[in-house]
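Support case: user asked for a sample of complex input and structure output to validate their parser. Sending the pair below.
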Amino acid sequence: MNQPLTIYIADDHKILAQALGGLIQQLPEVEELKIFHDGKQLFDACQENLPDIVCLDIEMPNWDGRKTLVELKALFPELRCLVLSMYNEKELIDDCIKKGAAGYLNKDCTLEELKEAFESSNDIYFSKGVLKHLSGYSQSSQKDELIDPTSLTEREFEVLKLLCEGMTPKEIASKIHLSPRTVETHKTSIMNKFGVNSVGKLISVAYKNKIV
Amino acid sequence: MTGTKSINNWIHLVITCLIVLLPLADFAQTIEQLKKKVATEKKPVELIKLHSDIGTEYYRKGDFVSSHEHFLESLKIAEKIGDEHNCAVSYNNLSIVYLNTEKYEKAEFYAKKSLNLSKKLNDKEHLANAYNTLGNIHYMKMEDSLSLHFYKKAIHYRKIMNDSLGLFIQYKNLGALYFEMGDTLKGIDYMEGSLSYLKSVDDNLEWFSAYLTVAEAHVYQGNLEKGKDYIDSCKMLLPRISAHQMIDDYYYVLHQYYQKKNNHEQALVSYKLYEKYKDSVENLEKHQQISELGVKYETEKKEQRISLQNKLLKEEEHSKNLILIISGILLFLLLTTFFMYRYIQKNRMVRLEKEHTEAILTEIINTEEKERNRIAKDLHDGIVQDITSLKFMLNAIQAEAPTKLHPSLSQLNEEIDKISSEVRELSYQMMPITLKELGLLKALEEMMNRNLNHNKIDFEFNALGFSDERLPEKIEVTVYRICQELINNTLKHSSATSVSLLVQLHQNMLQLTFEDDGVGFDVENVKKGIGLDSLTSRIAWIKGSLEFDSSEITKGTTAFIRIPL
């Protein structure tokens, strides 16, 4: 058996906190468990007596979970902080991990998952429900295309520059006295030369390669 | 080209006064010199400038009748030779004269003319001047929010021009506006802040007037110590100021100061000095004389011309025609005045109607967002947490239940999970927490990930020109909803396989370029569709513009959206 653990939970939903606490207390290695209803209370308690693990809800009155996380990590960099939340938005999960969370679990996770999260002292732990959301994401290809600006004609370069300045093809047409269709042709030709299939991509590639 | 200068237009607090930029002593001499030049000058461009200068001199002296006359002359020549730049200047100058004679409708009419022309010419200095004048007109009309709107526009252009005198005027006016709106502290802040723009200006009188304004604000506010500091600064400059109009204001402020200090003796002394200088100022009875200015002035002018013609006609003994001409002209003037009045009235009606529609739209959108926010929060903080508690209870029962109940309890468990995830998705669609906590860009990425990946559509998301700073909440939420609408539209109708969204922040302009490679649509027909209707009204609400580019040739749909910040 592992060494005995002290665990603090902060959750403003009292019934849920009780239920969660009851579940956690079923683990034999848990020696002491305290429940708080906002982040500030938990933080103050940590200053008096530092637990082994804290579990934070995200939305709470007074100090919310993210604020509490930042404050705790600043004072106790070694403290293992888990976020327990029903939000499964990837950017929010990323943000919590960036702020130093050691894991992100949904509140309806199983006792086994909680146990694993408490014990896996090195890796960042995600419960199954969270992982299901994270794995659904494929990062859009971030490779930086190298572009040869000399392949553009003078007119094409001009059109590209105006596109990057935020003008629409119609506005460009009236500005440089061409028909909208000609501008459209130039635009398509540039996109072909750069191997992109959208104006959005074209502009961002142009900026990233410092062509304009 | 060398354009004529616009006269600066000041809002002086509490007392509306003119700022005399030149000592009055020089006035007669200057006018005489300028008029001599007019007599010999032939080039229209020079004449425009000379008349404008003379008008400015009269304006500074407070003679609005003569000022009006010369500005009008300047305008006529400019119109004749098609010099649009100077037309814009003259319209603005005329507007200022009308403003000072409290003829607001006419002032607004000319200011708008100047504004429209300046927009056409894309002349930033004229634009700033016209916006300032409009701001002043609405300031005087106590239409504070309009005034604020125009001052901010003016500040925008002054900043682009890096015009420190202009910025001084702008911030001083803005300060006066806040002061009058009851936000006295902010007002004083702006007024004091405006002083820093004067540093590069070497003109005692401008400093004097600026100090005086701030002093007056402080005294009015009861900050007697600070007020006295600024009064003392004025006092230092006093020996070098010869414009009586400014000096009388100085003594008036001093009088106010002593009044508040309960030093009645000194208050009386300064009041007497105030009266002395006030009386010495050559003051035309501007209000009475100007009251019929609009029509009467024009009539007089025409009559002068007519009397000249009359002489000639007499010589030729054609006096009968004269009556016809006079009545013709009078009729013409009457009709012109009538139609101009109608035009202005109509304009005002249209404007009021538009303001009303905007107010309703704001109400609708605000209410909708507020409700979405509330429902999302209620769902997540209430129902989702309750369901989770239920699940815990069920698990506890399951642990102790007889084995034959296990299959149905497991099924119940699964059902609860399904409900929970549905409610959470609903809460997300209502108002994602990412948008509230992490901002627009993260929320957009999250949304594209969720909605597009799920439907096996490739996407490309790029953001350029952003810093860490969050955008105003109204903009963030609205732009998010706009993108949501665009993506839903793509999912529903286009059978696209890839989508690209580019968000650019460039010089206070937010630009969205949204593309899909779907079937595209007939722009004119679909614009009236329901989904796009809510899209266009949201864009209109934040004063943005939307342009679609959708055709069978280029395949797919492209939307260009621009939103000013």
